[in-house]
Design goal:
This protein is mainly alpha-helical. Helix content is 70%, strand content 0%. It has seven helices and no strands.
Length: 142
């Protein structure tokens, strides 16, 4: 499981954004996530902030672009624990492709997500991601 430094400025800004999401303030959350992206310096900070920016995109193509940015930065992180976030990142990308009716790319990304499920925690979040991947694979199977 990947550990995040709760004293990191970018993590703090993203946490504030998540609080805004929970409070039903999506515009404020989106503003905070974009602020985090603009301030992000490391690949870890960039993949985290891009992941949250993606969640607030209005269109699927824009969400896909931000999810791909998040994945590209995650892939540059040398800490092997980052692999725990790959299933979620690939799941998000696969779902975008599925929504865009690009079932070949959706299938490839669901398969990529599945290839990293062994890195998921055996908790509610891990089970939710695994279930999402399984459901996605079922929807786009040939």
């Amino acid at each position: 499981m990947m550990e995040f430094d709760t004293n990191n400025t970018i993590i703090k800004i993203c946490a504030q954004g998540m609080d805004c999401e929970g409070a039903g303030k999506p515009e404020e959350a989106s503003r905070l996530f974009v602020q985090a992206w603009r301030k992000a310096a490391s690949d870890t900070e960039k993949f985290i902030s891009a992941h949250y920016v993606a969640r607030h995109q209005k269109g699927v193509a824009d969400k896909l672009r931000w999810d791909q940015i998040a994945l590209a930065h995650a892939q540059k992180v040398t800490d092997k624990s980052v692999k725990a976030v790959y299933p979620s990142l690939y799941l998000n990308i696969a779902k975008c492709y599925e929504d865009l009716k690009d079932f070949d790319n959706a299938r490839k990304n669901y398969q990529q997500a599945w290839s990293f499920v062994s890195h998921l925690s055996d908790d509610g979040h891990g089970k939710m991601i695994k279930s999402g991947i399984t459901s996605g694979l079922e929807r786009v199977k040939k």
